[in-house]
Specification:
The complex is a heterodimer of chains A (about 230) and B (about 600).
Chain A lengths: L6 H6 L1 H8 L13 E2 L8 E3 L29 H14 L14 H9 L4 H25 L8 H11 L12 H25 L2 H6 L16 H7 L3
Antiparallel strand pairs in A: 1-2
Helix pairs in contact in A: 2-5, 3-4, 4-7, 5-7
Chain B lengths: L12 E6 L3 H12 L4 E4 L7 H4 L39 E3 L32 H4 L1 H5 L9 H15 L27 H12 L5 E2 L14 H5 L4 H12 L22 H4 L1 H6 L3 E4 L2 E8 L5 E8 L4 E12 L3 H10 L18 E4 L2 E8 L19 E3 L4 H5 L9 E7 L23 H10 L3 E8 L8 E9 L5 E6 L4 H20 L3 E4 L6 H4 L10 E3 L23 E3 L14 H21 L3
Parallel strand pairs in B: 1-2, 1-8, 2-5, 3-15, 8-18
Antiparallel strand pairs in B: 4-11, 6-7, 7-8, 9-17, 10-13, 10-16, 11-12, 12-13, 14-15
Classes of the chains: A mainly alpha (about 230), B alpha/beta (about 600).
């Protein structure tokens, strides 16, 4: 996982996950190639810049961007409705903050999976296949699509697929395939929902992040906290 | 004299400087303050941190929550423009087999170069670091001593502003009293790392970073840096007065619109321009250095990227500060009858002995840091503490299986949430959660992670070098570099030592290792060459013209009016991040160049 403690270490991992995602089958050959190999010299590679239709290497950093502005979104009405429902299930309103669906995090998820970059293309496959499987499983089990299920039925499916016990033995059979698809989908969708939600002002406040404000002097950690932890 | 276009250049300058980063910025500053007329050529576009830096922008108003993409590898808000490990229209070739032997070349195509986004860690090399060969028989000695560079370290620290503390540690030089700015107070997690590291014998002290924690003393520093030069003092005073102290928010990697940290565009270039002695042409991609029949540099040829036109500019001296590998590329592409293998390359050493920093990291999760109360731990926008290399005695006594040291950059804090916040918690909370339980988990774990990054010394070797690729050219038709890379057991064993040590520190904090650790294969653990973005070497300095490319002042042996003031002349790459040393050397080289111009030698 990406550890959030520092931008420096975090960004070191960037290329690693990019190259992992580059193997995604959704990629058109060559469209996102980061490097190509001259046939004449095996093992020799040319490092070339990404030339996909992204925001480029010199975007306006000060502008406010909205989902759908830089590249077209993907979800149709039903997919968007399902995604909104899932956002609200994964991050519901509580006494600390509103729900992820209140903050339209499903539109961020759509922005993410619609992006023309390798990492996002990998997540796109997981999310779109997962949404199909979620409805299929809902139909098989309850005779309705996921958005039409009762609250108890949502709870049953979330408990089943969003929690994968560490000692669980994967079912290698064909029937186990849909389970694995949904487990992977819930994990990815939760990561995206959390990333989208906790980067909003409401989400930042929820986790107790109080920075990004101008201060005349450096705030020091509270003395009672340091005492409790036994730190100088 | 200001920012100009190609058609506004003067017929001849005293000095042409190629590159506007730490080396070019420092060289231009020193020369123009002494009245030298300078033309600077920058391959990237003009850039104004005061108006372009994304200071307070947060993820939710940016594409993909600011996450890394191939277009912006360090994230959307990173200051880098038209760069990264690839750069549009400017390919390079990697020719060594094996995953761990792939060299990655980070470039930025913008005014100020990579100084706009760097981590600002600013450590002095110690006395050992200038004589590594004498100490352990590996690599090469520098043709100068710590004492030669010490005055320049002090000047640079006073000019750019560096926070830190003196601890009197071995080969980790103190600054004179009053030179360093006060260091920030450590974050909660940093205090824990310090306490527990110290407990197992790893000393943790204040980091040194080029960030102002208070306003600079604009009354006393200018006369100290520029005695008997009232104009330079006035220009510097104005520049220092235009800089604010850190306001304890935002990451330095974004750059700094209030000029609280060092970047060439806010610290070196404004006063240099205000002397009236500097012209800068942006979008000027230098192809080659021109020489006359006597073997003296006469100027350079560059491509104006705005229209593809070719231009020739002339000067009494040429300074290459394009970044180590770019400087090598220009030299190797500067072929003439006198220099058939590239300018100043009569001994064939240009391109040899490329070095990066040895890097490896381990991350962990620390239960003691769970459920922290709301905190503002933005601090000075980077590390507040670090561990300097602490095993010099054990190493020289032969108790370690590698020859050179590393320092530890360690961090933990309740930082601004980003993509990744809330991810991967299934590793701790019994397989994953959802709903209100998930929100509670995110609250619990945010800020409980820590990470340690080792930054170690690589010994120069014969297998790490670059040359001109016989086939591939960039979009302006300029032949590109082909890189070769290899590690020795010294680097690989050092990385294994890092992995063990970092895991021990995390254990000492009561935490668990999440990635890395002693069981990780050292070839998987080591970052590829270039990944740490400290590439130096390629045109090393020395005392012997047969065994080096430049003298101790960065002047090439073959062409005495061609100077190199970036990382290219580095003879070794101590674990101390190279930028401060690079600037100190550039100031010293520029002083030498001023003297040569005054004496009429150039």
């Amino acid at each position: 996982m990406k550890s959030p403690f520092s931008e420096r270490l975090d960004r070191r991992t960037a290329i690693k996950w990019m190259s992992t995602a580059a193997a995604s089958s959704l990629l058109k050959p060559g469209a996102f190639a980061l490097e190509s190999t001259p046939a004449a010299e095996p093992g020799v590679t040319i490092a070339e810049a990404f030339d996909g239709p992204g925001y480029g290497t010199d975007p306006d950093l000060l502008k406010v961007y909205a989902p759908g502005e830089l590249w077209p979104l993907t979800f149709d009405a039903h997919q968007r409705q399902t995604a909104a429902l899932l956002c609200g299930l994964i991050i519901p309103a509580d006494e600390h903050s509103p729900s992820a669906s209140d903050l339209k995090i499903h539109d961020f998820v759509d922005e993410w999976i619609s992006a023309p970059y390798p990492q996002q293309a990998g997540d796109r496959k997981i999310v779109l296949e997962g949404l199909v499987q979620l409805d299929a499983t809902s139909e098989t089990r309850f005779g309705k699509k996921f958005v039409d299920l009762k609250s108890m039925q949502h709870t049953e499916l979330c408990n089943e697929f969003a929690i994968v016990k560490p000692d669980a033995v994967p079912d290698p059979s064909e029937a186990g395939k849909s389970t694995r698809t949904l487990q992977r989908f819930f994990r990815t969708f939760r990561n995206l929902t959390a990333g989208g939600f906790y980067t909003t002002p409401e989400g930042m406040m929820d986790v107790g992040y109080t920075g990004n404000v101008v201060l005349a002097t450096q705030p020091k950690p509270p003395a009672d906290l340091l005492a409790k932890l036994g730190l100088d | 004299m200001p920012l100009i276009t190609s058609n506004k250049t003067q017929p001849e300058y005293d000095v042409i400087i190629v590159g506007s980063g730490a080396g070019g910025g420092q060289t231009a500053y020193t020369l123009t303050m002494e009245g030298v007329k300078v033309l600077m050529l920058e391959a990237g576009r003009s850039y104004v941190p005061q108006t372009e830096t994304a200071m307070f922008q947060t993820g939710h108003t940016s594409p993909l929550r600011g996450a890394s993409t191939p277009d912006k590898p360090f994230g959307f808000f990173d200051a880098t423009i038209d760069g990264g490990w690839t750069s549009p229209g400017e390919p390079y070739v990697r020719a060594s087999p094996g995953r761990e032997n792939q060299f990655k070349w980070w470039r930025a195509r913008m005014m100020g170069g990579r100084t706009n986004h760097w981590g600002r860690l600013s450590f002095r090399n110690g006395p050992y670091d200038f004589k590594p060969y004498s100490r352990d028989g590996l690599g090469f000695d520098w043709p100068l001593d710590y004492e030669d560079l010490e005055p320049y370290y002090e000047k640079v620290e006073l000019l750019i502003g560096v926070y830190g503390e003196n601890h009197g540690m071995e080969n980790t030089p103190d600054s004179a009293p009053g030179v360093l700015q006060p260091p920030p107070a450590p974050r909660v997690g940093e205090r824990l790392l310090k306490q527990r590291s110290t407990g197992i014998g790893v000393p943790v002290v204040a980091a040194h970073r080029a960030v102002l924690t208070q306003r600079q003393d604009s009354k006393n520093i200018p006369p100290k840096l520029h005695p008997n030069n009232p104009k330079a003092q006035r220009v510097l005073r104005e520049a220092m007065d235009s800089r604010a102290a850190c306001f304890w928010a935002t990451s330095c990697g974004r750059g700094c619109s209030i000029k609280a940290n060092y970047q060439s565009t806010t610290v070196h270039l404004p006063p240099a321009l205000n002397t009236g002695n500097l012209d800068i042409v942006p979008n000027a991609m230098v192809r080659e250095v021109e020489t006359d029949d006597a073997g003296r540099a006469t100027g350079v040829i560059y491509i104006d990227k705005t229209d593809g036109s070719e231009h020739r500019v002339k000067a009494r001296a040429v300074v290459l500060a394009a970044s180590a590998a770019s400087t090598v590329r220009i030299m190797l592409n500067s072929k003439s009858k006198r220099f058939p293998d590239g300018v100043a390359n009569s001994n064939g050493l240009v391109g040899k002995y490329l070095m990066d920093t040895v890097g490896a990291s381990v991350s962990g999760q620390v239960p003691m840091l769970e459920n922290l109360p709301p905190l503002n731990e933005d601090g000075a926008g980077g590390a507040h503490v670090y561990a300097p290399w602490w095993l010099y005695k054990e190493q020289i006594a032969g108790k370690l299986d590698f020859a050179r040291g590393y320092h530890i950059e360690m961090g933990s804090g309740k930082m601004m949430p980003r993509m990744g916040t809330g991810s991967g918690l299934e590793r701790f909370n019994g397989g994953g959660s959802w709903g209100k339980a998930f929100k509670k988990d995110v609250r619990r774990y945010h800020g409980s992670f820590c990470g340690m990054a080792g930054r170690g010394e690589m010994i120069p070797n014969e297998g790490s070098y670059c040359e001109i690729d016989p086939v591939v050219k960039d979009k302006w038709g300029i032949p590109v570099l082909r890189f070769y890379w290899e590690w020795s057991d010294h680097e690989l064993n050092q990385v294994a030592h890092m992995q063990r040590t970092f895991a021990e520190i995390i254990s000492a904090c009561g935490g668990r290792v999440l990635s890395g650790g002693p069981e990780k294969d050292r070839r998987d653990a080591i970052h590829p060459g270039g990944d740490i973005i400290h590439e130096v070497g390629g045109a090393i300095m020395g005392e012997n013209r047969r065994k080096s490319v430049t003298n101790q002042f960065g002047a090439t042996w073959d062409v005495p009016n061609l100077y190199l003031t970036d990382g290219a002349p580095f003879v070794s790459n101590a674990d101390k991040n190279p930028t401060l040393t690079l600037m100190a050397l550039a100031w010293r080289s520029a002083d030498h160049l001023v003297g040569e111009l005054a004496k009429g030698n150039i």
